[in-house]
Amino acid sequence: MKVLVINCGSSSLKYQLIELDNNQLMARGLADRVGLQLYEKASLTHRVNEKVWKYNVDMPDHYRAMEEVAKVLTHPEMGVIKTLEEIDAVGHRVVHGGERFTSSVVIDKEVEKAIEECANLAPLHNPPNLTGIRAAKALLPNVPHIAVFDTAFHSTIPPYAYIYALPYEFYERYRIRRYGFHGTSHYYVARRAIQYLKENFSIEPSKSKVITCHLGNGCSITAVLGGESIDTSMGLTPAEGLVMGTRCGDIDPAILPFLMEKEGYTAKDIDEIINKKSGLLGISGKTNDMRDIEEEIAKGDKRAKLAFDVFCYRVKKYIGAYAAVMGGVHAVVFTGGIGENGPMEREAICSGLEFLGIEIDPEKNEMMIRGKEGDISKENAPTRVLVIPTNEELVIAQETARIVSNIKKRSV
């Protein structure tokens, strides 16, 4: 079965074509900086085995990015299939499923409508997710399309961790609660870490305590106890928690009515500020991209350095909190674009956490970049620090195959 996996982020579109019968990755790629106008132009990187093609191309939105992906997959030189008809199913990452979707589903008109209704809870993600779904369905109208929800992995979080201390009627009326996101990523890297702890340190999976840090343009951190998510930093929407590219993360909620009164902002203005004008961009005043922040720091830019410091401090604070929640920690995992490729950020975050048994080896830390997976702890450190490239696409492909297989069984 050939499954095309589409993962539309707020400014990117990742894709993989996977032959699940023999677990062969046929092609993968990334449409990067989609819809951004800062620094570099949008680009598409397409990989087939060791061959890599990269070129700049205008991609003002995710619909255009999806068209470009279809073009390279069937290209005479770069492609791996002759026509799109060779694809058996498409799996889509969908960020927010609310309380309605706690597992993967076939996408029909009703599901599309429900995803659209959840867009106010994930304004940077559900709209591009839905755009990707509709563009893919237009290109591949005769195959099943499956939605795999980020929020599903966090459905095990207990009520005392997901209920806000607001009047309970708001939960009853609007289902205002914490949901959590990046579920497929946290699930994948936690599973890899638990396997590593069992094989190398004889830690039983059911007793494992793992903190997973997904750090990219969007950032979240999760406490995983015995393989289940028991708390996570994002909440009702992906705006809560860590400092992100353009999202503010945790703030005093009283700041919002204060600004509305002082500046005359509407609710829509506030939504724009906390989701698109804050985070690294808001503090630095220049960019939402950590790579650019590092360049600005090297030039001596003080606000870029402040943005970096606030970012790392917030991650460190959450690691301490989740170690307390679980009564200890066996491993801290870094993943996502910054987590996988940011030795500078990893060092700053882990510095001062020796009391938790967290000590990283500087040399191993510097070398663990560009897709490498490994343990960057000092040899005898009690708590392991792991860098594990996420593979949300593989999780989505496996979920897609499972749903399609169930459909076939029911139709026999």
Distinctive features:
single chain; alpha/beta; 19% strand; six-stranded mixed β-sheet; 412 residues
Question: Secondary structure elements and their pairing?
Answer:
Blueprint: E1 2-8, E2 12-19, E3 24-32, E4 43-48, E5 51-56, H1 62-73, E6 89-94, E7 105-106, H2 109-117, H3 126-139, E8 145-149, H4 159-162, H5 168-174, H6 183-201, E9 209-215, E10 219-225, E11 228-232, H7 255-263, H8 267-276, H9 279-284, H10 290-298, H11 302-326, E12 331-335, H12 336-341, H13 343-350, H14 362-367, E13 374-375, E14 384-387, H15 392-411
Parallel strand pairs: 1-6, 6-8, 9-12, 12-14
Antiparallel strand pairs: 1-2, 2-3, 3-4, 4-5, 7-8, 9-10, 10-11, 13-14
SS element count, helices: 15
On the 0 to 100 scale, the average pLDDT is 93
Secondary-structure element series: EEEEEHEEHHEHHHEEEHHHHHEHHHEEH
How far the N terminus sits from the C terminus, by CA atoms, comes to 18 Å
Q: How much helical structure, as a percent, in the residues?
A: 25-40%
Radius of gyration: 21 Å
Low-confidence stretches: none
Structural class: alpha/beta
Number of strands: 14
Strand order of the largest sheet: 5-4-3-2-1-6-8-7
Shape: globular
Biggest sheet descriptor = 8 strands, mixed
